[in-house]
Amino acid sequence: MTTLRARRRGRPPTIIDVAREAKVGVMSVSRVINNHPSVKHSTRAKVMKAIAKIGYSPNDAARMLKGRRGRTIGLVVPDLSDFFSSCFHAVQEVAIRHDYQTLVVATGRSVAVEEQQLESIQNRVAGLLIVSSGSDGRRLKMIQESGVPVVALDRPVAGVQADAVLVENREGAEQGVRHLIEHGHKKIACIGFDSGSYTVRERIEGYKLAMRNAGLDPILFIQVNSLEVMQALAQRWSAAKDRPTAVFSPKRISSVYLIQALHLHKLRVPEDVAVVGFDDFELAEVLGTPLTVVRQTPARMARAAAELLFKKIANLQEGAVSETQTAKMLFPTDLIIRRSCGCPAKE
Hints:
The chain is of the alpha/beta class. The chain has helices at residues 2-8, 15-22, 26-33, 41-54, 60-65, 82-97, 111-121, 138-145, 169-182, 198-213, 227-238, 252-264, 298-317; strands at residues 72-77, 101-106, 127-130, 150-153, 163-167, 188-191, 219-221, 246-249, 274-278, 292-295, 328-331, 334-336. The relative contact order is 0.12.
């Protein structure tokens, strides 16, 4: 029956099908394939019988366990912008040190593309690092059950118990907004978009917390998703006496749009509008008014996530029992003071 179901789906039987047929866990099947000495004779017999019955042929992950193939890890990212490009280079550096290759795929921030890419690479990698675009986690759970370790990077994955390496987004945003409040600003707007994503959502919460703790009302513009919309907003502000006197931007691209729009409509930074952005970028320091930012460290995060993944791969190869508890690593942020917040220029 299992074989028929697999064939109807147009795919060969997988390690999950073997586990179902043998009525054992996926890790037990992996240990049999790996010829691990801790496997009971009765379990080994059931698994071998199931393999023969459904016509299972070990895939790359299983061959990896035997040390012959599969020396590849996967990295799934929303895009290859500066932040995720830094992540890729750091992951690749760790992978090379472990004598592995890195297969990187970009999803274009599409859940549907993410699902397709995961299905495409799941039998080609020994482990997976993922910056999810918002999938429900079912495909990742299947990948985990097939014996491929998964580590979430930058944001957790819904519905999946996986180790995660994250940034203190909420605390960083709160620190940036508090700095504006310390400058005496009471009308501080939060401008950006992509509020459905974990990282931006956390930063908006940090902004709200800082405002409320200071007894101030949040001013949210969280659908400003293009330069044109940002320019229209800046144009309204240029003629308004009650405009915000400061802005917190929770995304790098929103900071770029904002600086461009304010300059176009002759609003001076920081004299007319002070600005703090989340996430540093290469030109932030050399803008007409250098941008104060909440800086995160993508390379350090990605390096830590890759090392965590290789530790899990090594445990799997050695037949170690997988841990039921998941690890969460939180990386702090730094407030980089430049001039856009109103601080004087440094020598």
